[in-house]
Amino acid sequence: MRAIRIIYFVIAILVALSAAFAIWIYYIKEGKDLLNFTISIVGFCIAVLALFIAVRTYTSIDSVNNITKMDGNILDNENYVISVPELVNRFQHSNEKELGEELFKSIEIKLKKESDTAVLFADTLQYMIDLIVLFPAVFNASDIDKLEYRKRMDSILVEVERRRGILHSISKGNAIQITETIKLFKAVVSYQSFVADRNFNIHADLLHVRGPILRNPVTKTIYHNYLGLYFNKKAMYVLSSSLGLKDVDILSIGGVDLLLDKVSSISPSHKEDAILYFRSACEQFERAHLACGDDIMWPGFIDYNKARTLFLLSLLTQEENQWLKIMETAIESRSKLNKMIEDVLTVHQDAKSYVNDTHLRNFFLYQEELARMVKLNILLGTKSPNSQENLSINYKGTLLSNTSVEDIQQLLKPILSFSVVEKYQRELVDCLAVRCSNQVC
Fold first, then answer.
1. Which pLDDT does position 62 carry in this prediction?
2. What average pLDDT does the segment 4-21 reach?
3. How far apart are CA 320 and CA 311, in angstroms?
4. Cβ neighbours, 10 Å, residue 89
5. Cα 263–Cα 299–Cα 415 angle in degrees, nearest 5
6. Residue 18 belongs to what H/E stretch?
7. Closest CA to 288 of 331, 209, 227
8. Residue 349: in which H helix or E strand, if any?
9. Average pLDDT over the chain, rounded to an integer
10. Which residues, listed in sequence order, are joined to residue 347 by a DSSP beta bridge?
11. pLDDT (mean) for 308-323
């Protein structure tokens, strides 16, 4: 824009100087030959006007090209990865409200001030995709106004569509990556909203995303992971509806036990549908694993999702699979991630060090503890109370059979702000207390 203004300024100066020079010449000749002078001035003005139109056309074409070109945009970068340390270091907020406010604010600023061209808009969309995994840290927390959260998210989606409409009106050719990424983001937000309300009859928004078009490893990973979760939730909806377990958490100890009792009564058609959905989910999780490559964060999420899917599939098919091994891999991945986050947030001061306790850190600790608790829930829910296999069940390397209930309570890691883990821990203690009172464990 600055170069264009300089060109226009130079043209204006030339016109003014030429006009002044022509008038000066005219008066020197004492007003003679007025007709020739008038024709010359008119011709000069026409030439200047033609120059102005030519420059204007050139700059307009150049401006359109600058706005719409997608060369080197981040959505096409096949080596892109999320910088988890950067996110953890940036969002060092102590509670979910502050974190949510900063997440929304950062997105809104990028949309309004850093999205004028297609390349910049692509950067903004990638930034939003990177933050997808952090949104549950806000709306899954206990002390959050979900209505206000959705209102703020809706305003962001409106602005995204407005920006997309502007680019689409100028040029349709380069918009396909942007269009599919927006569809992916909206579909994931919709999925997260449904799951937060414990509604497993998920809308098919993710099926509208043309996944094979996506090139960026992060967007491909998120697409396949959430498509797998979509199929997982469809299967769980079939199970819960068919067996009358709509209000039951089927991954709790009691829920697993109840599911074992009822699973044999599922109708053949519902069983076939659920198996189809669970197998489709596993296929998508495998593709997500391939797409994420050496990413340090996503394997923990993908393996956890695949492990619980495989467990539910094994109940329907009566076939052994690797759910436990994959769950342990997920726990290990999440544990490594939390160790890295701890290193990032460690502050060294006056020969002492401490870890800055942020809400985001608690969220990732919650994810690790959730995987540990779901593993224990499944093992305790599927084993008979007097089974010898109970003797090998452990928590962080400690055999539960050799540990008193009081010691287990001390061993369990409390996670503030996330009620699901607290509920599972309380149920675990109650279950072990009952079994111990019956002299079983």
1. 46
2. 67
3. 9
4. 15
5. 75
6. helix 2-28
7. 227
8. strand 346-349
9. 82
10. 354
11. 92
CA distance 394 to 372: 10
Question: What residues are paired with 399 via a beta bridge?
Answer: 394
* Closest by CA position to 163, among listed 286, 414, 155: 155
CA separation for the pair 51, 56 (Å, rounded): 8
* 64 pLDDT above the threshold of 60: no
Residue 125 per-residue DSSP state? H
Q: Could you tell me if 91 and 134 are in contact, meaning their C-beta atoms sit under 8 angstroms apart?
A: yes
- By CB neighbour count within 10 A (0-12 exposed, 13-18 middle, 19+ buried), where does 119 fall? buried
| CA distance linking residue 323 with residue 325, whole number of Å | 6
How far, in Å, CA of 202 to CA of 432, rounded?
A: 35
Q: What mean pLDDT comes out for the span 213-242? A: 92
As beta bridge partners, residue 349 has 352
User: Which pairing describes strands 352-355 and 346-349: parallel, antiparallel, or unpaired?
Assistant: antiparallel
User: Encoding tokens for residue 197?
Assistant: 């309300």
What is the maximum alpha-carbon separation in the chain?
125
Instruction: Retrieve residue 130's tokens.
Output: 């990177």
Beta strands in 114-181 (DSSP E): none
Q: Render pLDDT for 144-198 as a digit per residue (tens, 0 to 9).
A: 677 788 888 889 999 988 888 877 664 555 578 888 889 999 999 888 877 766 6
In the chain, the percentage of residues whose pLDDT exceeds 70 is 77
Q: Residue 240, Cα to own-chain centre: how many angstroms? A: 27
Q: How far apart are CA 119 and CA 74, in angstroms?
A: 8
d(CA 274, CA 247): 18
Nearest to 277 by CA among 367, 202, 193, 183: 202
Q: Which two tokens stand for residue 355?
A: 């870890």
Closest CA to 183 of 203, 208, 164: 208
Q: Dihedral through CA 30, CA 33, CA 36, CA 39, nearest 10?
A: 60
**Which amino acid, 23?**
I
- The two tokens of residue 118 are 């297609």
Dihedral over alpha carbons 108, 112, 113, 115 (to 10 degrees): 100
Q: Which of 188, 67, 181, 190 is nearest to 124 (CA)?
A: 181
CA distance 281 to 68: 37
CA 350, CA 423: separation in Å to the nearest integer? 40
Neighbours of 385 (CB within 10 A): 12
Q: Based on the number of CB atoms within 10 Å of its own CB, is 34 exposed (0-12), middle (13-18) or buried (19 or more)?
A: exposed
Residues 326, 344: Cα–Cα separation, whole Å: 27
Task: Write down the domain spans for the chain.
Answer: 2-62
Which residue type is seen at 240? S
